[in-house]
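Per your request, structure below.
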């Protein structure tokens, strides 16, 4: 398969959406399942286990989105301030206290900007009703926001631009050779990443490559060591994997798996055909995992690894 850098890489994103739909469907069925009662039969245990695995997987993908690639490229920002990191008011005190405890001046690490003068790309995101209370503070009667500073030196090495991952969904990132690194970036690692006061937009950010590699890791297809391979290799593997997510064969596998699971739940609720539905689900699970490994094998071969 040849990577098409102009393609819309939305295969994994859409797959996650289908999983969220399934989780919502199951949540609607939960009261009825509880009314039937927990008989702890094999069928019930399978249903409960499938739900818990699904819920945990989505939590890891969407809400515990720690990036394990650690290339540091998302921590470089343009001089025109079209991309900046806002600091929430409830995290600002912790950040200041930490800096002062290290005999550092907070003003060397954060800067104030007027809401009305922000770059057009940033202002709508910050001034949205749900965000206004998080970021905006009053100074002299003006709406102001704190942002992280960048270092006056250490611009982005032009050679690294070729390695830069895309944004989620395949959109082009904001990087160019004039970008400068965040004040908290040291040796391609964020020095405040594991603190309580790291800005939310940093903690929750996940690029396209990190998003795909995270899923493959959760499936047990790749190890932590694999995630440390050159970014160029990880990008290529992510591109190829996302094409699998978007492929008709993978969609067919997923749709059939969802169908047999729903049939099992419905049979359990009705109280008949449970044994047959349970066997059909278990049989298909074996086929699903075997076929899924085969589909992703070409993408994983780029990392010189094989799905376990």
């Amino acid at each position: 398969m040849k990577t098409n850098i102009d393609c819309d890489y939305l295969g994994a994103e859409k797959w996650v959406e289908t999983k969220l739909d399934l989780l919502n469907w199951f949540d609607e069925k939960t009261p009825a399942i509880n009314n039937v009662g927990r008989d702890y039969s094999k069928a019930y245990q399978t249903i409960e286990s499938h739900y818990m695995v699904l819920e945990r997987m989505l939590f890891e993908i969407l809400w515990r989105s720690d990036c394990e690639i650690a290339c540091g490229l998302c921590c470089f920002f343009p001089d025109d301030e079209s991309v900046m990191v806002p600091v929430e008011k409830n995290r600002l005190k912790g950040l200041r206290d930490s800096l002062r405890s290290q005999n550092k001046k907070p003003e060397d690490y954060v800067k104030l900007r007027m809401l009305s003068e922000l770059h057009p790309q940033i202002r709508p995101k910050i001034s949205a009703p749900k965000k206004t209370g998080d970021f905006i503070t009053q100074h002299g009667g003006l709406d102001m926001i704190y942002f992280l500073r960048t270092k006056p030196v250490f611009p982005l090495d032009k050679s690294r631009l070729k390695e830069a991952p895309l944004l989620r969904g395949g959109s082009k990132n904001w990087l160019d050779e004039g970008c400068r690194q965040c004040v908290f970036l040291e040796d391609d690692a964020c020095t405040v990443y594991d603190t309580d006061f790291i800005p939310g937009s940093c903690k929750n950010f996940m690029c396209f490559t990190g998003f795909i590699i995270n899923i493959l890791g959760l499936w047990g297809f790749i190890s932590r060591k694999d995630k440390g391979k050159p970014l160029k290799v990880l990008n290529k593997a992510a591109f190829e994997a996302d094409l699998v997510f978007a492929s008709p064969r993978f969609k067919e596998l997923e749709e059939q798996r969802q169908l047999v699971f729903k049939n099992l739940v419905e049979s359990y609720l009705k109280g008949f055909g449970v044994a047959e539905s349970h066997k059909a689900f278990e049989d298909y699970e074996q086929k699903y995992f075997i076929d899924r490994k085969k589909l992703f094998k070409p993408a994983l071969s780029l990392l010189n690894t094989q799905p376990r």
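The beta strands are 76-77, 110-114, 137-139, 142-148, 150-155, 180-182, 185-186, 189-190.

Regards,
D.
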